[in-house]
Amino acid sequence: MYVATKGGERAIDAAHDWLAEERRGDPSVPELSIAQIREQMRLAVNRVMAEGSLYDPDLAALAIKQARGDLIEAIFLIRAYRTTLPRFGASLPVETDAMAITRRISATFKDVPGGQVLGPTFDYTHRLLDFKLAAEGEAPEAARKPADDTPAPHVLALLDRDGLMEPLEMSDAEPGDLTREPLEMPADRPLRLQALTRGDEGFVLSMAYSTQRGYGRTHAFVGELRIGTCAVEMEIPELGFSVEIGEVELSECETVNQFTGSKTEPPQFTRGYGLVFGQNERKSISMSLVDRSLRWEELGEDDTGAPAQDAEFVLYHCDNIQATGFLEHIKLPHYVDFQSELELIRRLRKAAGADMQEAAE
């Protein structure tokens, strides 16, 4: 006999109190401040902002603290808070050409206008634990340099100039907004890019990796990866012109993909594109690979049946908040459902036993 255990409101309140105690940890250890999380766990903060669709480092740091470091829970908190905010306008498209660059690399050309900037990167570090960090002494003087304001045109423009790159198609149509309307299929490219930039980093990474292993027919080069800050401008109707209202840190990646041509398109290089909040280059590269794989139909390619080519599969499963909600609901009470399943199995076993006995006779 299965009996439901009743705890009620007191049990839930006690669980919340215990959670707060666990979140604080040992009271003899100094409590983490929001500023510490914001400044010293910046990559985690960037991920929460990107997948939470809200650029606010302080709020992202607060969410990480409240979630005890569970980034998906922190993303959930940020998205929930975002729904309470009024929308009073829309900014103009950011000009990444004018980005104040802290990191910019190209795997396709050695010498590019504006130069290559390694910036802060793990690429050339040894993956060995640095026990000096455990000493918690004064940090060494950083070799930090101000962002480079030197004009740096996009590398893919070099190929575009020679007619080797597919032309950019600009549209004046207002794109959809996944933060206000649910995703519907078929989804155009702006909606696909929104879903990918909000998508779970691990999922998008695994989809990108699958394309590199042959499940998506892409052979990509990083045409350019750039990280830096961009000004955000907004048109003020009363003024008749746009004003700068702030700046955001962005990671942008454009991949160059080989394309032998199709019935509708000539042989040329094609693009994959990724853009996310903060320094989040793994996500932006992954996003650009998946974006290119999802473009198979518009480029006249064959559908190979690869997961990364299936827009419905990718876009409906990349959102970690939706996935978490559906996953975690199964730990809530399902007593009635399970009782019906239990009764069904008992009836089937009884019927199967009778059939076996009849066959034996």
UniProtKB/TrEMBL annotation:
- This protein's species is Thioclava marina
The name this protein carries in UniProt is: Carbon-phosphorus lyase complex subunit PhnI
- Per the UniProt record, one Pfam family is PhnI
Query: What would you give as a GO molecular function for this chain, any one?
Result: lyase activity
Keyword list (alphabetical) reads: Lyase
